[in-house]
Design goal:
It contains 5 helices and no strands. By secondary structure, it is an all-alpha fold.
């Protein structure tokens, strides 16, 4: 008999009421903070790479121009024209990249020292790149070996630059 009574009492109870399942929206504050942090890091990374690409655009254009000058020199074998064009390219690059320093106005050993300071590991200094100064001499003796030795130095100079902006 007690079993029948307990069964009837249990049957009188209302059915269990389960709580609503937890919704995925709105997320907890921790998820919002995580999302903002990840988004911020993505934006900073994107900004860094865009800025880096813009900085290197001028250098890459100068390297392409240097290679065009080198190919022209190899075809025509005119060292005076090559050295004049290379010096012009260097002056234009420095004038565009470092306008506040007025490096493009320098001449002689000061010009070569300034180039060396901008990219010290390249080895462009008054000893190795003195052929650049020969374009200002009245009766310059342009050596083919000097021009051939200068080209790799200039490529290394452009590649070793730390571009600012």
């Amino acid at each position: 008999m007690p079993d029948k009574l307990s069964d009837s009492l249990l049957n009188q109870l209302p059915p269990l009421h389960w709580p609503e399942p937890v919704s995925f929206w709105p997320p907890a504050i921790g998820w919002w903070l995580s999302a903002v942090t990840v988004l911020g890091l993505l934006l900073l990374t994107l900004h860094y790479f865009i800025k880096r690409k813009r900085r290197n655009k001028l250098r890459n254009a100068a390297l392409r121009e240097l290679n065009v000058l080198w190919q022209t020199y190899q075809k025509e074998n005119n060292a005076a024209e090559y050295l004049t064009a290379v010096n012009r390219l260097l002056k234009q690059f420095v004038m565009q990249q470092y306008p506040e320093k007025h490096l493009h106005t320098l001449t002689g050993a000061k010009w070569l020292n300034a180039l060396n300071e901008l990219s010290p590991q390249s080895g462009v200094n008054s000893d190795t790149a003195s052929v650049l100064l020969s374009i200002y001499a009245k009766h310059a003796d342009y050596s083919v070996n000097d021009a051939r030795a200068l080209h790799p130095l200039l490529v290394q100079w452009f590649k070793g630059l730390r571009i600012v902006s």
